[in-house]
């Protein structure tokens, strides 16, 4: 394995310990989860971590996410789930972290929520616009002008110019990141009682809402990850192609770096 400036093996061991706790808890409480994003690519392409990956992501549909959020902390003393709804320190939208109380730095995994997407395309476009605005304002309150900004050079220029404008308009002074996280959550939850055909994780940093057919992620199957079986979406290929295109193709060498540790 490539040499890293931190103990990758120790980090992964801590994360897998948390994942085992979460998987066991979900199985015992009839809560559906599945590996997601880079972790899912790792399971499909490498049967474990992507060689340079340094985190674990899982996803739950809204009903399972809410059930997990309500029950997990009541039934665990060595681990806790922190999210916008139960922690004043959290600024992230539509996701939370399961944390090992004895190793809060490395012993944590991300739990993302997928919510309903309106079937009406006009409503979806309206929601996309609102999300983009609130997310941009959220980023302006969280990141420095030269902080993370993905995409093309032109997009990075626009994002950083907007952050400068946000400071001129004192947005960062009068509004907190939590305010915009809560606004996005309110927008999303208005469709929570509808049986829509598609779902999406709204906080993914993308120019568009990556809506996927509910059937692709509503059912789960076993997938191998680091020598054990965890849940992956039955329609994993459909979702990964939507998010990443040809996900079986390795990225350029320059992009094969950890994103969460230095």
Describe this structure in words.
With 262 residues, this protein is an alpha+beta fold. Helix content is 42%, strand content 17%. The protein is built from nine helices and nine strands. It has helices at residues 8-28, 37-46, 62-71, 121-142, 153-168, 171-174, 177-189, 214-218, 236-244, and strands at 34-35, 57-61, 79-83, 95-100, 108-117, 198-200, 212-213, 220-225, 228-233. Strands 1, 2, 3, 4, 5, 6 and 7 form a seven-stranded mixed sheet that branches. Helix 4 packs across helix 5 (153-168) and helix 4 (121-142) runs antiparallel to helix 7. The longest helix has 22 residues, at 121-142. The radius of gyration is 18 Å and the shape is globular. The mean pLDDT is 87.
Q: Rounded to an integer, what's the Rg over CA atoms?
A: 18 Å
Instruction: List segments where confidence is low: pLDDT < 50 over at least 5 consecutive residues.
Output: none
Number of strands: 9
Helix tally equals 9
The helicity comes to 40-55%
Largest sheet: 7 strands, mixed
User: End-to-end span in angstroms?
Assistant: 16 Å
Instruction: Tell me, rounded to a whole number, the average pLDDT.
Output: 87
Keywords:
262 residues; alpha+beta; seven-stranded mixed sheet; 9 strands; globular
State the gist of this model.
With about 260 residues, the protein is of the alpha+beta class.
Lay out the secondary structure:
Blueprint lengths: L7 H21 L5 E2 L1 H10 L10 E5 H10 L7 E5 L11 E6 L7 E10 L3 H22 L10 H16 L2 H4 L2 H13 L8 E3 L11 E2 H5 L1 E6 L2 E6 L2 H9 L18
Parallel strand pairs: 2-5
Antiparallel strand pairs: 1-2, 3-4, 4-5, 5-6, 6-7, 8-9
Helix pairs in contact: 4-5, 4-7
């Amino acid at each position: 394995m490539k040499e890293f400036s931190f103990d990758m093996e120790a980090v992964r061991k801590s994360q897998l310990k948390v994942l085992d706790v979460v998987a066991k808890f979900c199985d015992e409480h009839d809560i559906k989860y599945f590996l997601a994003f880079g972790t899912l690519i790792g399971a499909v392409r490498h049967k474990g971590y992507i060689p340079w990956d340094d985190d674990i992501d899982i996803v739950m549909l809204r009903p399972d996410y809410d059930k997990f959020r309500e029950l997990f902390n009541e039934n665990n003393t060595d681990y806790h789930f922190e999210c916008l709804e139960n922690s004043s320190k959290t600024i992230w939208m539509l996701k939370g972290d399961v944390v090992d109380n004895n190793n809060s730095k490395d012993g944590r995994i991300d739990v993302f929520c997928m919510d309903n997407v309106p079937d009406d395309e006009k409503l979806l476009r309206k929601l996309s616009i609102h999300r983009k605005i609130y997310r941009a304002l959220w980023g302006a309150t969280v990141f420095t002008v030269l902080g993370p900004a993905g995409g093309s050079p032109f997009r990075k220029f626009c994002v950083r110019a907007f952050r400068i404008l946000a400071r001129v308009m004192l947005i960062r002074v009068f509004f907190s990141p939590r305010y915009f996280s809560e606004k996005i959550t309110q927008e999303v939850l208005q469709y929570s009682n509808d049986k829509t055909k598609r779902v999406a994780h709204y906080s993914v940093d993308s120019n568009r809402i990556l809506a996927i057919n509910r059937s692709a992620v509503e059912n789960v199957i076993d997938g191998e990850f680091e020598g054990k079986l965890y849940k992956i979406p039955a329609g994993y290929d459909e979702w990964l192609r939507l998010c990443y295109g040809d996900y079986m193709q390795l990225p350029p060498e320059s992009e094969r770096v950890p994103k969460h540790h230095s």
